[in-house]
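pasting input
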Amino acid sequence: MMQVVYEKTKGLTDKQTHYCPGCTHGVIHKLVGEVLVELGVLGKTVGVAPVGCSVLAYDYFNCDMHEAAHGRAPAVATGIKRVLPDHTVFTYQGDGDLASIGTAEIIHAAHRGEKFTTIFVNNAIYGMTGGQMAPTTLIGQKATTSPYGRDQATTGMPLKVSEMLATIDGAAFVERVSVHDVPNIRKAKKAIKKAFQVQIEGTGFGIVEILSTCPTNWGITPVDSLTWLKENMIPYYPLGNFRTPEEVK
Amino acid sequence: MAEEKIIMAGFGGQGVMSMGQLLTYAGMIEEKNVSWLPSYGPEMRGGTANCAVIVSDKQVGSPIITNDATAAIVMNRPSLDKFEDDIRKDGKLLINSSLIEKKASREDLTVFYIKANDIANDLGNAKVANMVMLGAYLEITKVVKVESVIEALKKVFGPAKEHLVPLNKDALEKGAEAVR
Amino acid sequence: MSKTLMKGNEALGAAAIQAGCKYFFGYPITPQNELPEYMARELPMIEGGAFVQAESEVAAINMIYGAAGAGARCMTSSSSPGMALKQEGISYIAGAELPCVIVNISRGGPGLGGIQPSQADYFQSTRGGGNGDYRHLVYAPATIQEAVDLVMEAFDVADYYRNPVIVIGDGMIGQMMEPVEFKELKKRDLPVKDWATTGTNEERKPNIINSLALDPAELEKHNQKLTRKYKEMEEKEVRHEDYQVEDAELIFVAYGTTSRITRNVVDSLREEGIKAGMIRPITLWPFPTAAIQNVPASAKALLAVEMSEGQMIDDVKIAIEGRLPAYHYGRSGGMIPVPEDIIEKAKEILGGVK
């Protein structure tokens, strides 16, 4: 007798994604989709897609979606949530979108305590445009616009978004996770779920920073990428919770 | 009255804007065509304030008064210097002589000197100097009835400040007396 | 309903609320601040209403993008440099076909410019300050009453076409007070917003608000669809007022604040026996091209009066196709034209054309 051991979440559509082999966007999409279904909010969810590799996320999430201008997803989400305060609203943003062009929008959404959730995918590089340096690129890391490796003297230190947002009172939930192995994927899902719960309970803004890979632009294999993430990104971007409201602890 | 174009000017806090608004409101109550145009910007922060009021039997064209004011009410010296030339020939100039020692320099105007601050102080409240000037202006021009201004006052003040109506009424009357 | 005396900026807000607008997103800038201030006082009193002071004009227009996508009647306002920042969002909103109303109480430029009345945003408003092939209606009221009427109508027009609508005034329209009456609008048949992101309830396919189309053929199709919509606007929504045009020899073209000054000029010239008239565009886009093309045979010349160094004059010239000389008289930087100077220019032109 046949037994169903795994089913794709109905939080995602059947559309085949455009992500490169080994990219962890797919895993993160799955986690978000599962959480929306498990919390029973999928039918009352509006997601906001960014500009960057996940620009086409609006085709993959099985809920109403809004494609924002580069960096503006938190502003778009603010507009949606103010109109639909009982709905679940999330933004899905990469590091160029959130940590560079959209810093004002993310800081002030957190600052106002907007009741939506941000999924922030940090892969330390601009993927969609072909591997340019991001604010999150590590020191010494090569990118097409830091061909000799990122130089602190001229480009500063990589931006620690979670630490920065954790200083803002309106940011009720801030956690950094990683998806480089199964135990961490499980932890990531828990964090995503908590961040959405914070929104549903109306406590404030929630963000989960997810360390992710980019084998294509890092120029290494998918397996090596997972190791590279673990060995290089986590030491600089420590995993853990920076803020949790009492209610969801 | 076909069309009255009044410039009101003074320094911030002299109630120049509200004096203009009351006249405009009163004109509206009497179903005349009206407009109120304030100066705005940094000059409002403690500097001079002025507004242009038009009360007309026909549709108001430009709300801007350049050099064809039928009257000007000036509450302080800089306002006299700035707006005297904007009054049309044979126009009226009302000068708050409590604060302005200088006389009008044009001879083709009908000029009224009103000790607005002294009169207001006698009434017990220096803030109604603007109402004294407005009372004088209405007595001279009869643009709108004093009753309409009182009605406008009640609407602008609302119930919370209705107790201030008698004082303002007295100020309008004293202003009228000053030019009778 | 009786008349009330209102400041232009506040009347614009009151009209929006009257038209069912419950959401306002904005950023402070002179000379339009009384409008967001009015909304900040009033919208929280309305069930479900919200006012948000955004961190920037860029954020404000993108909040509008979100709110409009969720199906709400919403509004933002700004002044010239702030409008420049909003252009990105306006392009997206036009591309994604969402309705919203945007008020520009314009001031002198370029750059930070000044804060006094100006009409130097004509190009920005009518040419599309943002990227791409898009258009939007631009209403240019000349009185507070007209501003109120047009704002109320703007919400319907925006919903009908699923397109942003701009209402442009200047510091004078924003700051002055005139009596206004809030009248019932003629109702338009408006389509249901079945495209809005209101949640699928797991009963329908997801709605997607989007302006991205990576396939050129698909994007061209979208552009062509938008163009058909803009053509319909050009046919149905263009509006202007004729003043003393029938037998005029000199026809002024002026809108908003300058049209009020020019109206006085026309009266003065007529008193002197000079046959002057005025065409007043009420919509800057679509521009009343036909009105200009159909000037009476008595017309010898056109004179555009603007508070700019010459922007609308381009549309006047395009419309008249060289059949009559078209002149421009402008003041800029916040300087307001005085009737005497316009009259002098008019006489100079008539002298020259004879």
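fyi DSSP finds nine helices and seven strands in chain A.
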